[in-house]
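User: Hi! I have a protein structure encoded as tokens and I'd like to know what sequence might fold into it. I'm fairly new to this, so please keep things simple.
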């Protein structure tokens, strides 16, 4: 079992920045990929970015060049630096973790709200 706790959301003006953190606890040694998803009202949850245990990354086109994911394996924490935020980035952001040898993300955080005003 893994527990994920996000922090760092908030309200920011367009063009501003926020940094999200996701701290993992429990069976963290079993974690392979970690990712950030987001869900806006009335929309489906979408992948923002993922990072492998080897730090390979996969970004959604909509955030490339603006968002940066990083991973500190010693602290079992993943970060999402979000720059040049746009109103369309407004959503609940969720951290997710996947165990080695599995295809889907099994563990999810409770989510943190990001609101970007125009």
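Assistant: Happy to help. Inverse folding works backwards from shape to sequence: for each of the 118 positions I chose a residue that suits the local structure. Here it is:
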């Amino acid at each position: 079992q893994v527990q994920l706790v996000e922090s760092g959301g908030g309200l920011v003006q367009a063009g501003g920045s926020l940094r999200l953190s996701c701290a993992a606890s429990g069976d963290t040694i079993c974690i392979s990929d970690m990712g950030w998803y987001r869900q806006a009202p009335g929309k489906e949850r979408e992948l923002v970015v993922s990072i492998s245990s080897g730090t390979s990354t996969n970004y959604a086109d909509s955030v490339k060049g603006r968002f940066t994911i990083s991973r500190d394996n010693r602290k079992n924490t993943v970060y999402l630096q979000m720059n040049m935020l746009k109103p369309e980035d407004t959503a609940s952001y969720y951290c997710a973790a996947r165990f080695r040898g599995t295809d889907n993300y099994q563990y999810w955080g409770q989510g943190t709200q990001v609101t970007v005003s125009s």
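A useful reference point when you look it over: The mean pLDDT is 96. Feel free to ask if any position seems puzzling.
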